[in-house]
Amino acid sequence: MNHRQFFRSPVPFLFLILVLTLSGCSKKGSSEASSSFTPGETRVLVPQADGSNTIGGDPLLLDLSHTDQGYFIGTMSGDGGKINIQLIGPDNVTYKYFIEEADSPTVFPFTAGSGSYTLMAFQNISEDQYASLFSQVIDVELTNDFLPFLYPNQYVNFSQDSKAVSLAAQLTSGLTSDVEALTAIYEYVTANITYDNEKAATVSGNYLPDIDETLSTKKGICFDYASLTAAMLRSIGIPAKLAIGYSASVRHAWIDVYIQSVGWVERAVEFNGDEWKLMDPTFAATGTDESIQEYIGDGDNYITEYIR
Fold first, then answer.
1. What integer pLDDT is reported at residue 93 of this predicted model?
2. Exposure pattern of 184-202 as b/e (b: 16+ CB <10 Å)?
3. Would you give the DSSP letter of residue 67?
4. pLDDT of residue 121 exceeding 50
5. Most confident of 112-121, 125-134, 171-180, 189-198
6. Facing residues of 246 across strands?
7. Using only C-alpha atoms, what is the Rg of the chain?
8. Across residues 220-235, what is the average pLDDT?
9. What is the mean pLDDT of residues 153-173?
10. What angle do CA 94, 100, 102 make, to 5 degrees?
């Protein structure tokens, strides 16, 4: 994926489009995930690397001890330089990740769910040249299909100490449903974070969002909006996917959310060029708004390439 083209998009429009659909609802584990939202509480899942199942060593150690939780953890040694990890799962999508910071454990998700994954690791040796470190096939059986979208990872990075986590708990305190929680978080993010055109024009190709930095500067690009919103939702027990792809012809990022009464909701918020707007969730569910149905029905409007 061309990150540079993605982030240089000069306009912030179409951050997310909320349309509740009755299709695409994951059944396995749905009871646990849909009942996990508790008003005013956080449910931050903490990835563990206990060393019971590892591959590699120097310069890259991968901990596969908790693949059933939907993640693995990579740590590069001090002289590793730059590492590229590629993961091909049952969806046949090649997910590419990079580690550039030594001795800092990094979490990577099994976003394609249960199934067989081919994991490959490469070390940068000069400019854009990489040497193969190892390759291994991993069979993953998730205990809950929602886990990859509840845990933090390299792209949706948060912890119990993140300011965004405490803010999400505050914003949703006293609310009684996940839809209300989504609305409260959406309204805060869209009212307080402005689009950073300068950042969009200068951001590096391997940019990773920093959710607390976004809250502190109150600026961001669409990647920051999506990562921050997904992290806040995950921290209160609402499964959220960070999606990367295209909206029409524009490189873009957005989120999909799991709503208890409906299932997976694709494209949750719309920016129409003048204002942010949360769509009425009954429109798509009842089919009463023809313009919404026409937009969703056109596959050219949203094309997903990666889920994080």
1. 93
2. bbbebbbeebebbeebbee
3. G
4. yes
5. 112-121
6. 251, 303
7. 19
8. 91
9. 95
10. 125
Q: How confident is the model at residue 255 (pLDDT cuts 50, 70, 90)?
A: confident
Helix pair 222-235, 178-192: axis angle to 10 deg: 150
Helix, strand or coil, per DSSP, at residue 80: coil
Residue 239's pLDDT is 93
Between CA 26 and CA 40 the distance in angstroms is 26
CATH of 54-143 among 3.40.50.1370, 2.60.120.760, 3.40.50.970, 2.60.40.10: 2.60.40.10
Burial of 160 (0-12, 13-18, 19+ CB in 10 A): exposed
Residue 164 carries which side chain, given as an amino acid letter? A
Q: Extract the tokens encoding 150.
A: 């509840």
H or E element in which residue 182 lies: helix 178-192
The kind and range of the H/E element at 106 are: strand 106-109
Classify 238 as helix, strand or coil: coil
Q: For residue 59, is the peptide bond before it cis, meaning its omega torsion is within 30 degrees of 0?
A: yes
Phi-psi region at 178: left, alpha or beta (left = phi > 0; alpha = psi -120 to 50): alpha
Higher-scoring residue by pLDDT: 48, 43: 48
Instruction: Name the pTM for this structure.
Output: 0.81
Q: Where are the beta strands (DSSP E) in 162-284?
A: 194-195, 219-220, 240-247, 250-259, 263-266, 270-271, 276-277
Kindly report, residue by residue over 60-80, the tens digit of the pLDDT: 999 999 999 999 999 999 887
The Cβ-side half-sphere exposure at 47, using a 13 Å CA radius, reads 28
From 1.20.1250, 1.10.260, 3.10.620, 3.90.320, which CATH number describes the 3-43+153-307 domain? 3.10.620
How do the domains of the chain map onto residue ranges? 3-43+153-307, 54-143
